[in-house]
Amino acid sequence: MTAGDTPRPIEGALKLGITGAAGRMGRMLIQTVLDVTDGSVVLHGAIANEGSAAVGQDAGLLAGRAACGVTVGDDPVQLFATADAVVDFTRPEASVRFSALAAQGKAVHVVGTTGFSAEDLAALGRAARHTPVVQSYNMGLGINVLAALVRQAARALDAGWDIEVVEMHHRHKIDAPSGTAILLGRAAAEGRGVDFDAARAVDRDGRRPDGAIGFATLRGGDVVGEHTVILAGAGERIELAHRATDRGIFARGALKAALWGRGRAPGLYSMTDVLGLG
Ligand SMILES: NC(=O)C1=CN([C@@H]2O[C@H](COP(=O)(O)OP(=O)(O)OC[C@H]3O[C@@H](n4cnc5c(N)ncnc54)[C@H](OP(=O)(O)O)[C@@H]3O)[C@@H](O)[C@H]2O)C=CC1
Ligand SMILES: O=C(O)C1=N[C@H](C(=O)O)C[C@H](O)C1
């Protein structure tokens, strides 16, 4: 079987693990899994960072729900060895470490973390030789559809149209530009048929470089995530925008990816695969 083939059917609820349980996305993921009532998934385990005050707490209570009987731990080895799938929204260094554990334990690894270096992404690719890894800088349906629209627009327009990606997030976000901005910039580069790494202009001072795909980052307040791709021509401008108002969209997408990955051949997959947008 090759990557992308139909997965073999598996009986029973998916045993789901969650990392970064005390984080904004970790708590949202716990809520989302506890809300599932069709028996397709069960919260198998949740871990927080070593030394976190969340360790030892009931995961349901931590996420603002009723107690669920799952105690938050701090042992990723045990989690990845026993879960069917683990959803991971943490930090790049943690996700890279977890991907090796997923490879050992043959757990589906759904990676929502952003801010990866090229070396980090290569490490995820190595883990994906042994287990299904679904990695996407945005787990929501809307952004993945937007990326397809951006690719199409950039393909239709010549290099006389300047491409800029503008994003805004909450004041706590640590990476910039956002992973989603990069995902959208890559889609524009693919549509235009240029090398993204050569075209990207993140830290700009002075005049706009010709042919650049530019990025502008705004941070403040509690903004969940806003992205606009601007294609600016002479005498006209196209703006393709998405506004996320609820982190639940990312959690539900990640859960969908975990269920989709079950029984699938090892490989590095994206939400384009999960959502059938390829
Ligand atoms: N792909 C997508 O659709 C989305 C991606 N994201 C991304 O997900 C990530 C998390 O976002 P968010 O939940 O807002 O961030 P938070 O900072 O709220 O949560 C991150 C959690 O990971 C934990 N963590 C950090 N380092 C480690 C480590 N080395 N080992 C174990 N746990 C660790 C943190 O613990 P501690 O506080 O103790 O450091 C924290 O609880 C970010 O990269 C963000 O950009 C967010 C939303 C959607
Ligand atoms: O950190 C966040 O909050 C988000 N991060 C992701 C990103 O970097 O694109 C996705 C979403 O926009 C929220």
Helix content: 25-40%
Give the amount of beta strand, in percent. 15-25%
Give me the Rg, rounded.
Answer: 19 Å
Largest sheet: 6 strands, parallel
In the CATH scheme, the class of the largest domain would be: Alpha Beta
How much is the average pLDDT?
A: 96
Structural class: alpha/beta
> How many beta-strand elements?
11
CATH superfamily heading of the largest domain: NAD(P)-binding Rossmann-like Domain
Measured distance between first and last alpha carbons: 19 Å
Output the strand order for the largest sheet: 2-1-3-4-5-11
Shape: globular
Indicate how many domains the architecture comprises.
2
Number of helices: 10
Low-confidence stretches: none
Element string (H = helix, E = strand): EHEHHEHEHEHEHHEEEEHEH
CATH topology name of the largest domain: Rossmann fold
Reported CATH architecture of the largest domain: 3-Layer(aba) Sandwich
Give the bound compounds: NADPH dihydro-nicotinamide-adenine-dinucleotide phosphate, the ligand O=C(O)C1=N[C@H](C(=O)O)C[C@H](O)C1
Binding site for (S)-2,3,4,5-tetrahydrodipicolinate: 170, 179-180
Subunit structure: Homotetramer.
Pathway: Amino-acid biosynthesis; L-lysine biosynthesis via DAP pathway; (S)-tetrahydrodipicolinate from L-aspartate: step 4/4
Domain Dihydrodipicolinate reductase C-terminal: 142-275
